[in-house]
Design goal:
Length: 429
Amino acid sequence: MTADLDAVALSILKDNDLGGYTIPTKGLYPYQWNWDSVFVAFGFATFDLNRAWTEIENLFEGQWADGMVPHILFRKNDPSYFPGPGVWGTKTEPFPTSGHSQPPVAATAVRDLLEMSSAADNIARAKVLFPKLMDWHRWWATYRDPKGHGSVAIVHPWESGRDNLPDWDEPLSMVGTEGVGEYTRKDTSHVDPEMRPKKLDYDRYMAILNAGKSVGWDARKTVEVTPFLVADPGITMILLRANRDLLVMADRLGFNDDKAEIESWIAQLERGLESLWNPAINAYVTRNLRTDVMGTGVSSASFLASYAGVTDPKVIEPMQAHFDRIAGAAEYMLPSYDPAHEGFEHKRYWRGPVWAVVNYMAARGMREAGDLNRAEKIRHDTVRLIEKSGFAEYFSPVDGSGAGGKSFSWTAAVWLAWATPSLAANKAA
Ligand code: DGY
């Protein structure tokens, strides 16, 4: 079974490889997505280190002059996706892109690739990417902390990568949809609409997109005009982790002059994370920066605390209690949203389903922090899900059924990089 699944995972990555960049899945997502590509690189690195580098190098071909790395790179037009390049209206070269970013996992992957080989070429490739990563992380620090809390603000739910998280409902309820007009979704022609965001969500997504477009996605003006400005614990923790990895690379690669700046970003994000702690539920949650209303549910991103390097028992112990409680209620960990919350829906995208990539990050952090049992529980559940339902986009935490797109690149990639029982480390576990 394991050998077969390894082979299937490999063939999914090869099939979705359009020549130096990898699409998440055919039909539903026919372009290069930012964090998808980075997880794909973790997968390629298990059998082709050169190809892993290329994936990330090509992602940075889409980097904007201000440092932002966009969430979609529209390398060639494909009418199977909405909203495509014409809707975003960006005028970027050498190809159009979307107008905002996505969780910055890349520095963590680049550090991993760097550590896989001490060959001169390997070090040289990390050296080329390092200043580009600096520019991207500086963009977050400069433009995405408008209130000075230190946390990362997003301007669109799509930027979080967790599009329809129940915690976005409150800030989204303030987004007017007048003027959005008619449009035709494509996602629901590929996937059961019950597994996707609802029409009202999409109307609001389009209204927010139109606001960013109206100011040409200028970084500062977009933050001013967007009707959705929310601090996201997911990006805050992923960026905090990525900055720690960037600091290690600065040392290793000789970029010593950059260290103080990276340290200042780390301090900023550590302070920001404190502003996202909701004492009413004892977890890191979202915070609407227009109203100061905090999210009310434990999400899978709340479990990225150890991944972000948080060691404070006042955080870790309540999170462990949440983990054990949720593990008692759900058949498969980690649900993307608390099954005890009224917003939970087990098959609707980010309102409950398990996502292998979040499992990977959360378990990686827990293992690094010495919480081996919980880390292994997450990995084992990921294996059970993939054995039961294949390389789906996401999975029901209730019955383990696959949902969303099929033959999904990042699910295949994290299988190869982390979950598969054929990895020596996992055989011993
Ligand atoms: C989609 O189209 O569903 C994506 O999540 C947006 O990035």
